[in-house]
Amino acid sequence: MKKFRKVLDGLTTSSPGGTIGSPSCGSAAGTPTSAPAPREIDIQETLISENFQLCKTVRHGFPYQPTALAFDPVQKLLAIGSRSGGIRILGRPGVDCYCQHESGAAVLQLQFLINEGALVTACADDTLHLWNLRQRRPAVLHSLKFNRERITFCHLPFQSKWLYVGTERGNTHIVNIESFILSGYVIMWNKAIELATKTHPGPVVHLSDSPKDEGKLLIGFESGTIVQWDLRAKKADFRIYYDEAIHSVSWHHEGKQFMCSHSDGSLTLWNLRNTTKPFQVTFPHGKIQKDGRKESCKPILKVEYKTSRNSEPFIIFSGGLSYDKAGRRPTLTIMHGKAITVLEMDYPIVEFLVLCETPYNNEVQDPYAVVVLLEKDLIVVDLTQSNFPVFENPYPMDVHESPVTCTAYFADCPPDIIPILYSIGAKHKKTGYSQKEWPISGGTWMLVDVKNLDCSDTITLQMLYKLKTSKAFEKPKVGDGRAAELVEEDPFAVQMVSWCPQSRIFCVVGISAHIILYRFSKYDANTQIVSLEVRLQCEPEDVISPSENENNPCFTESGSHSPHHQQPVNAGNRTPEGNKDSTPCLKVKERMVRVPPGYQSELVIQLQWIDGEPPQQITSLDINSAYGLLAFGNCNGLAVVDYLQKTILLCMSTLDLYGATDPYQRLTRSPRRNRQSTSELCMRGLSNLYSDSKKRIRTSYQSKSGLPKGRGWDHVNGHCTSPTSQSCSAGKPRIPMGPEGPRLTRRGPGRPPFRKAQSAACMEISLPVSHTEESRENSFSHSRSSSVSSIDRETKEAITTLQFGESFGRKTDALPTPCLWVGTSLGVALLIPMSIPTDQEERMDEPVAIGPSGGVLMLKGSVLRFGFLDCMGALIQSPYEVWRDLNAAEDPDRPRRRKLVHFSPSSSQDACGDGHLAVVCSERQAKVFLMPSQSCLFVHNITESSFVLRADIVSVYNSACLACFCANGHVMTLSLPSLRPLMDVNYLPLTDMRIARTFCFTNGGQALYLSSPTEIQRITYSQEMCDNLQEMLGELFTPIETPEAQNRGFLKGFFGGNAQTFDREELFGEASAGKASRSLAQHIPGQGGVEGMKVAATGVVGDLARARIALDERGQRLGELEDRTALMMTSAETFSKHAHEWAQFKL
């Protein structure tokens, strides 16, 4: 420790040559360097590269763009295929598995091998895949690529190893599931139809075996032709030619009738005794018009004909509504006897399945539920109740209920916060759900503790609480000032959130340049929302007159902050009627409102319109409950609000924050002759990212030397380029990036000012992928050098990140004080010391003093994140206030007082001095400073060819590290404080802005991002969690005895009612059918291995499966031994009899 104290003393008295501005602090990309003064730092770093590994853990949400659906009635598993080639397999809550086809081709159809632990997928690239589900991470066992024909339909009979495959040419092929090789048996379309037929029947749209006889295959063609093919005789039993196109076919369980759905909205019922015409034709939703004709109806895309033992049959179909009304919702119709129930859906129906009690198609089906897959939802309807209620979905399928615009990930939350949020959120849940258990109950999953890793935190996701921010505002009315422009738009879209779990204070930044502060309470209350309006529209290039300076708080001198502008401003106390510009975008509710338990709005802060121009979007936010302060900034400046006293403490332009410490020589500018409207920039940060056309991401901050007009130029879009380090030039202010990702400027003229809010999932950009010097110069430019001394063309810089904490505002400070760290888009970190009254009564009455005259630190690129370490290398948390319920009844004996928890740098290191380490990360660089000397200890250039989109200082293995996600898809971790590279993985190429805006790290080696508009992908960068991930995941396959087929009795079997079996192996095998043409399909072995199909791979379920198989084999051997023993006894008796007869003959 003495050695380290000497190092600190040496740094404190070091010469200015070791500071951040000196060349000694620069380093090559990816190489950490240190200043000359600190030869050694006595901090024991415990993190090593072996502690880190990157892998995906689990995916939450609704499968994006679903295409197919399948259900295993014995295992109770549900599979959903998507357009991107993904498969989600769902079982009981906790059993949720995601698989991905390497080709990325859309999944056309799914077929479970019922109770076999396998799944067949047919993809749009005409490839069949066999997946092994007997392991926690399913893998492909076999693939079969069709070369000359396109797959249109597949059918796998129960307990059969032969898969029927229909093609676009009308042919039907047969695939052996075990070997995944085509059989030589082919049903050609020209043999299936009559020779006299001159037209092609079209693609195969249906295949099914007859419940009465498995040797009869029903083939449905798109044109309306239906053929029953006798597999043994290799000929057609009958052919049906119908005028309307067929979409689906469904058998009656007795095999004597089947029902078809057609393109004209009709259902036809066919009897096998007479196939010349349909037995019955119905238009369920077709009304008879006055002229006697049926009105035209939409196609019925699918029909299911299911019988019930105790009631009338169920006929369930999708579509079929009449065309009389435009804009009608998609429907699912349930016909049960004479009753017809129409269920309206919120989204188009992709597919539906009827869940039945038996897997055998020749038994009474007894349906109990319908699974309906919609474009953006999954619904399960209970058929056992007459009102057909839906089941409550236990999976978090409604993540996209409101388009996702930002994410925040919190680990190690207080243990009491989750139960209280769940209990209050449960009161607002919808009612009317079915009381029965969720029918999709397959797989096994247990809450186990693996090496102190709580699986409930790492695997499952549950919706706890929902909050609507629009309730704090009046509804915009037509003609109501600025609100008239927002009526048809989305002015309440959330742009940024900040949450303090300890104090339960929650802040929301909206797209309309507003901030809402919420407090948590377990009781309902009557409250009036306080509104503050801030004028943060500063343009330092204009000439400021004395009178203008006196009335504009943005230009108040840093040393004096007169209190005349710090009083709360209610929604009604605005500027005089004549000046309508100084108004906010939204109108806060002025009346007393009754708020339920949960998060209750307390304060609303809004930026004002000025001179007909809307306010710039808020780019950074931080709140500290111990200080009672809230800070936010945009490209114009910084504002600090005391939310306890409801006053504005500071409102200054970024340039004024420097004072005499401005590192740049900014040239004075003459006032603009013609004020150009900047209203086109209002609220651009989200709205522009929703553009339909793909936009090129802007490159990093460019060096001023050699660039036209002193700024970078995008040769593609024709505007200034920078992802984050971009300032607003005179007359054309540009929106910089917030700490969560870059923003894009609009192309072309036009006035937004508010676009309909869409999610971050809609954002798409294109990134240059070439690494040549030319493309790199055009796309990812070099970052500005720290020695740049003149930015005459850049007069505005945005506030990109903020952080409250105990620190040293000045080099001469002996003790840490409350400070605000401010990061800007020009790579500057500013320290603003504050003086906050410590006594509770004084805190509510005395003003907080803020003096923006602290230190200035500089980095390359826009500043993204701050973090603080003590001199032992431990992470210093921000101080906070312990939560107290302000609406609870006050105890006179125990008055409520604020309980503050401070983590001062000096409290944990009495032996090593009063200093601490500050970690600052920008889009290009990370630096570690020693406070209060502000000396640079370590520098690491994170990237030269790309830029950092997200950086977080997290705790892993009880140590701190810096985690970064770059625009080139690399995920990196750096040790602290030495900034040694620990992990660098090329994980995810940045293909759209959704990933950039939603990627975030948290403690414990976890991270997440929005992988699609409807799905959240969680990943881990912890080696320990990767090693134990298999134990955390649920088992998909569970050994279950297959239900036995019902004994149908002698009479039914005698009169032909029983199903007939036949040997498919004898019919389709190579010995009788021969080999298929090699050019027709190509077999591709999978990575799962053939042995995976025979036994489960790992886990307790695998042991049970192996034990069961061994028991079956042992029983089989015992049975064979018993047969041989009986045979030997019979032979012995016969021999004894013959011997006795021979002896009698001799006598």
UniProtKB/TrEMBL annotation:
* Low complexity: bias regions: 10-36, 780-790
Question: Which residue ranges have biased composition labelled Polar residues?
Answer: 546-573
Kindly give the Pfam families that the UniProt entry links to this protein.
Answer: LLGL, WD40
User: Which cellular components does GO assign to this protein?
Assistant: plasma membrane; SNARE complex
- Where do the WD repeat units fall? 239-280
Membrane topology type: Peripheral membrane protein
Alphabetically, the GO molecular function entries are: GTPase activator activity; myosin II binding; syntaxin binding
What keyword terms does UniProt attach to this protein? Answer: Cell membrane, Coiled coil, Cytoplasm, Exocytosis, Membrane, Protein transport, Repeat, Transport, WD repeat
Q: Name one GO biological process term.
A: exocytosis
Q: Where in the cell is it found?
A: Cell membrane; Cytoplasm
UniProt-annotated stretches for the region Disordered: 1-36, 543-583, 721-757, 770-793
User: Which domain of life does the protein's organism represent?
Assistant: Eukaryota
Looking at the record, the residues that make up the V-SNARE coiled-coil homology domain are 1089-1147
SUPFAM superfamilies associated with the record: SNARE fusion complex, WD40 repeat-like
Protein family per UniProt: Belongs to the WD repeat L(2)GL family.
Q: State the protein's name.
A: Syntaxin-binding protein 5-like
Species this chain originates from: Gouania willdenowi (Blunt-snouted clingfish)
Q: What gene name does this entry carry? A: LOC114454909
